[in-house]
Amino acid sequence: MTINTELIVLHTTKFGENSIVVHTLSKEYGRRSFLIRGAGKKAVMTLLLPLTILEAEVIETSRSTLYTAKNLSSKHPLMGIRSNIYKNSMTLFMSEVLYRTLKDGANESGLFEWCEKSILLLDALESDFSNFHLRFLLEFAVALGFSPEARDLQPFVREHYPLVERLMKESFADVMLIPLNGPLRNEIAESILRYLEFHTESAINIASLKVLRELFS
Length: 217
What we know:
Blueprint: E1 2-15, E2 19-26, E3 30-36, H1 42-47, E4 53-59, E5 68-74, H2 79-82, H3 85-101, H4 111-124, H5 132-143, H6 150-157, H7 161-169, H8 172-176, H9 182-200, H10 209-215
Antiparallel strand pairs: 1-2, 1-4, 2-3, 4-5
Helix pairs in contact: 3-5, 3-10, 4-5, 5-9, 6-7, 9-10
């Protein structure tokens, strides 16, 4: 059976000589991995960059739980992201958070739509997006169903509580203008990740966070 679907790329893993397993998020399947055959071509790899939103055909089979995806195309060009090293690094962080937090088979209602909206918002921003990943983490907690109040994060963020409260309660535009340096953003991000670890009961080690610290210092 063939299903037409949309997939958000979270991570890729090489599979054999010419195939790749792409780990994705979709409305139909939630967090799920698919096999892409003949994925060594540059054009295909360009489609598999972090947080690319794909249109694809999924071939379901009873012989394996690893379905095949083919006829991939990009739903949105994301030129605002792909032409900007800072935004590209941010999508690397965001995709790594999603990949390491969401378990296979997880399919929270509205999660795909929220994620797509976040990607398109980052793509559209022309400036003042250095705090975007912090707001993303806080909204991610809501999208997962935790819906925290600022006080719920206090044991995790500690001395950064006043800033985190602002990040949660102020408008998106105002949050983007809060003056923070790279190390402080890093500390706040790590504290919110600890909150997510506690509620998902899993370790979330994000290597790309160090890249953001350097770029936005």
